[in-house]
Amino acid sequence: MSPRGDPSVPISPLEEWTARRLGVDRLTREEVGRWQLERLREVVGWARERSPYYRRLYESLPDGAPAGFDRIALLPLLDNSVVRERGQELVCVSLSDISRVVTMPTSGSTGAPKRLYFTTDDLRLTADHFRHGMRALVGPGDRLVVLMPGQTPGSVGALLRDGLGQDGVDVHSYGFVDDCADVAACIVGFEATALVGVPGQVVRLARSAAGRRAGKGRIRNVLLSGDHVTPAMRAAIEDAWDCRVFEHYGSTEIGLGGAVQCRAHAGLHVREADLLFEVVDPVTGRPLPDGSEGELVVTTLTRRGMPMIRLRTGDLVRMAAEPCPCGSVLRSIGTVVGRMGERLPLKGGGTPTVADLDEAVFGVDAVMGFVATLEADADDPAAAPGAGDRLTVKVELRSEEPVPAREAAAADVAGRVATIPAVRSSGLQVRVEESAEAADVAPSAKQRIVDRRGT
Ligand SMILES: [Zn+2]
Fold first, then answer.
1. How far is the CA of 325 from the centre of ligand 1 (A)?
2. Any residues with CB less than 8 A from the CB of 71 and at least 6 apart, and which?
3. Which of 377, 385, 389, 453 is most buried by its number of CB atoms within 10 A?
4. Residue 153's pLDDT is what?
């Protein structure tokens, strides 16, 4: 074992929780590996016995497989389309044992909505993960406002309340941010010391006049989840409130809680007692060495209602090649670099990501939010390859800025977007407009880019 890293950084609170889950005094990589392999075999056996889909998928798999992680490729990757179209065939318990069904909105115009099934135990483990992971941010006496839904049992807000309530942290679920002044009033009224929210929405709140005032000197820690966080987005929040920003990775598919930063603010420590993370080549599906960018594949090791075995998440990440400075043996991933489906292939050959645009646009202080629309230049059908795509960025700017400052900010945004390497090399025309209507400006990455170029 290597000695503890930086002694000034407290070890990830997930370390102690994971050790307890594994029944060991001191966590080692060997113990984690042994536990994960045993749980993997167990969940594969459970799934093939009880789920019609997995039974067919593993028909020719030897009993007790895989023998080791080097044989994990025997288990085919699970595509998200299977979860959407045949989700019920993945369920391993009778519906009377399911305590929560989450219906996900459809992204396309056709097809049934995706449904995800959880047992009481599945949800309890997530609440427990939230409770321990959040100890890097909050402790007894802290007051947390969750800017995500929390009314339904088993929702993010409810699970945070269940988990953190046991540690003397008061939790209030506000829901998603729409009216920044109203959220600001809630932060002041509740005397919040910490926030959990979606990155783009928290940036918008932190840059609004009311939100900035409400959080300054009050909000000490912020956890961002549900989307990528670029350096400019992180800086926007830290600068507004003089607070610490932590990142969390999770999705409903993998059971909401996945990986979270410790006070080293380096990688996001994986919830390894419950989840196996792999990074694979998105084209070949082969595992990649630590440090290489690829698609995150997740196996839920302990979930019983609807286990996900080698689920392709579509998220592009790197597994950290170096141990975290906090000294934890838990593995960590870097921030999500982007989503596979969210790359924008331009006529000129470049493929900027939504994160590239976020970094450029939020790099301008006056920007609260934006929506970018990509269109083909219909006026010029004979345009040479590399010409013809046009990007219109509608930005919501801080209303208290005088007109000349807003005009300069819009020009600054145009300049920054135009110099994204993939944009510059593609000859994309960029236009920036100020949007008077806050409602025009969508907060989530999925909604920030509208591709109207047809097929
Ligand atoms: Zn750490």
1. 6
2. 65
3. 389
4. 87
